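sorry for the late reply, my laptop died twice this morning and i had to redo everyting from scratch. anyway the thing you sent over, i finally got around to it. pasting the sequence first so we're on the same page, its 163 residues, then the predicted structure underneath. double check i copied it right bc i was rushing
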Amino acid sequence: MSLFTELKRRNVIKVALAYLVASWLVLQITDVLMSVLGLSESAGKFVFLLLVIGFIPVLVFAWAYEVTPEGIKRESEVDRDESITRETASRLNRTTIVLLVAVAAMVLFDRFILPGETGSGSITSESGVPAADSAEVNDGDDPGILENAGIELRRLFGLIVEP
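ok and here's the structure:
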């Protein structure tokens, strides 16, 4: 038997795909929570690092163990005639589809429900209409003027200044 055939039989490829989709969902949720809670980018990098570190142990676990009606057993202890890898594969397929739908929902939620970040360096009102260009506000005399102007615009008119 080839390595690829054995990986398919043991559902390692499906576990890897499900893990990647679940990781994508976790990263989407992390991104949304970081913007809502005002966390730094290092929190997102930390979550990403944890997910990357966890990928190899998940693949090793998927290779070495099999889910049976009696629980999780070492693959070598399961008779191939009694193996339920096909049922496990269909469960993994359903899980991956549900996770993909959840990711799509998170992306839609992030794009359309939460207020967007333009990242253009412009000043916008809360309705998203540009109020002034950052080059117009900063005349070059002092870089702190733009920051002070942004604070005052936010306080007086509800305008949001994006760097």
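Residues 118-123, 132-139 have pLDDT under 50 and may be disordered.
thats about all i looked at so far, will dig more tmrw
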